[in-house]
Structure formats: C-alpha cells, structure tokens
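S.,

Sequence below, as promised.
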Amino acid sequence: MENQAAQIVALNGSPHRNGNTVTLMHWVAEGCQESGASIAWIHVVDHDIRYCEGCFTCLRTGACPIQDDVPRVRERLMAADGLIVGSPVYEDQPTAQLKTLLDRLTLLNLYTRTFERQRSIGVATSGVAPTGGVAKELADFFGRRSGIIGAKTASVSSGYQPLAEVHHPRLPERARALGRGLVKDIEQADRPRLPSPMHLWIGVLRRLVIRPLMTGHPDQFAGALAVWQEKGWL
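The prediction came back faster than expected:
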C-alpha cells in the first residue's frame, strides 16, 4: 500500500463497549493510528446477529438467507486492510455474541478464505484463565496473524480490577507496538513471505479435499465455486 492510509476495523466481541477488552484493543488501535492508519469500531452487541441455521445456502448461493446485520458486518470486515479482534475468555472460548458471528461466517471462510487478504491481531482478556488460545483463534480466523496479546485482570489479593487502572506498566506499549507492526505488515503485503504452517495446511486441504468435493458437486457449492473462479483457484 502506497500513499494510502491503512483501514483497520476493531471488532469488539465483549458485551461491554468500555470494558477491559476494549481498553486493551484501544491500546493496539493507538499504535495503528501512530503509523497513520484509520480505525473504525464494530461492537458486536450493537448488531442483530442471529444463530446459524446450518442450511448451507451460503455455499450454494454465496449469501446467507437470514435477514439481519451479518451481511453488513461482513462487508465492513472484508473491506478492511487489517482487523483487531477482541473478546473476553469464557470457558476457553470467545463470548457467545462473537461466537455467533463466527458461526455465521465460518462455512464461507473455510471454503473460500474470506479474510485471506487481511492482516489481523487477536486480543483476549480474562480474570485468571489463559488468554493465548482465544487470541490466536481470533487472529487466525480473521486473516493472516500479525500478533496476539492478552491480559489477566484479577489477582488473589485485589480481585477483579479495571485494566485501565491496574496493568503491567509495559502492557500499553506492547499493545501499541503490535498495532504499529500490523500497519507495517499491511504496507509490506506485496513482499514475498513464507506461509505459516496453518496456511500450508489449508492449502493442502483445499487442493486435496475441498476442491474435488466442490467440483464433484457443483450444484451444492455454486456460490463458493464462483468465489474460486474470481480468485483464479480453478
């Protein structure tokens, strides 16, 4: 990208618009802005996002038949150059609100790599639970991972604390550095890079399993096959 500001979307999966997850995401976003990027926020709780019905219509037609806010949210995510995706950790998973969105996007993402162009950072917070797994899962779902960051917000001595008030002194700058790194990765997107093990595996899966499945049943996968044609994969 030359002479054009990177467009970053911060997707907040927390039920809170100003909680600990958003605090940590804001620090990442500040780093992006320091590097000249623009930031737009999507709070999942502000949108009508209904459960996936498992109808596979998205693979047949390329569009979901459920009339809610998911198509608009998906378009905003796809238009971004980079994504900061955050969630608290609930039972080693993202929130139910964000998981519902993931469920609605997952089939087309699996078969067509919806967010293959985007670079991403995963953000997760918790009281005392590990955060790395959820942060990695979110970053890998929504693009090519530029980094992850997590924070725990409870201690035996103090209980739960607002992250904005109680945090490791280096945490904000670590988050900002990730934001700057995200913009750098976007700006250097055209440079050749070695694929990650996950993307190598996806390439093998696409070539050996998904491609013959789709081409062998074109009526069931017409929508996904149209995306493959656009990307030159057929």
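The first strand starts at residue 7 and ends at 12.

Coffee later?
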